[in-house]
């Protein structure tokens, strides 16, 4: 009976004598912080890894396949506003390359040739739709050329309405969401963000094809 009593009073193993299995299970359990909260490490482990964002400024990105990032289609009456937009875009960290017809067209070249070349060599087209734009047959021609170039490219044609009723939104663009310009700074930022998203998606698709 003496040996049985000694067995009952045998001391429990210390923490340093625990089996490897018990140590492993303890390290994998959620940790508790000093403020009483628990499960932080566990919740973090279930978060999906962030989606990598392509660097549109990288030397080998698809962005450099074209001469311009943005072509601005507008009425001459709205030139002052367009110049502000171009200045804003070109001053961004991405240093967007903008085609502005009165500034960038080659002297002596045919107007229609310059326009078609600019549309083909630009990733995105901003349509500044104002009352003057709607009344100008040349602006409508630019709009039709852009739609013919890429009718189903999401984010490539960016309609921007200013001082135009929604009911007067060109029917050719009804399948595209537009930016309604109220505060100029906000609209400029929306245009910039849309161009960035398009270029990122372009670079992502190009990388996927290469892989």
TrEMBL record:
CC terms in the record's Gene Ontology section: cytoplasm; plasma membrane
Domain of life of the source: Eukaryota
Regions of compositional bias (Basic residues) in chain numbering: 1-12
Family matches, as Gene3D superfamilies: Toll/interleukin-1 receptor homology (TIR) domain
Compositionally biased tracts (Low complexity): 14-45
Recorded coiled-coil stretches: none
GO molecular function: Toll-like receptor 2 binding; Toll-like receptor 4 binding
The name this protein goes by in its record: TIRAP protein
Gene source species: Zapornia atra
Chain's gene name: Tirap
């Amino acid at each position: 009976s003496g040996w049985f009593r000694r067995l009952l009073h045998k001391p429990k193993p210390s923490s340093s004598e625990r089996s490897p299995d018990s140590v492993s299970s303890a390290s994998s359990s959620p940790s508790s912080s000093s403020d009483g909260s628990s499960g932080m490490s566990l919740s973090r482990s279930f978060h999906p890894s962030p989606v990598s964002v392509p660097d549109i400024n990288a030397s080998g990105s698809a962005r450099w396949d074209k001469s311009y990032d943005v072509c601005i289609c507008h009425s001459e009456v709205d030139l002052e506003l367009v110049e502000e937009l171009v200045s804003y875009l070109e001053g961004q960290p991405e240093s967007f390359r903008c085609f502005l017809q009165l500034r960038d067209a080659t002297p002596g070249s045919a107007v229609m040739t310059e326009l078609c070349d600019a549309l083909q060599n630009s990733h995105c087209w901003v349509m500044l739709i104002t009352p003057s734009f709607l009344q100008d047959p040349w602006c409508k021609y630019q709009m039709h050329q852009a739609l013919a170039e890429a009718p189903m490219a999401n984010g490539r044609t960016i309609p921007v309405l200013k001082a135009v009723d929604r009911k007067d939104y060109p029917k050719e663009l009804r399948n595209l969401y537009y930016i309604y310009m109220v505060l100029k700074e906000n609209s400029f930022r929306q245009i910039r963000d849309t161009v960035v998203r398009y270029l990122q998606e372009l670079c992502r698709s190009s990388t996927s094809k290469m892989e």
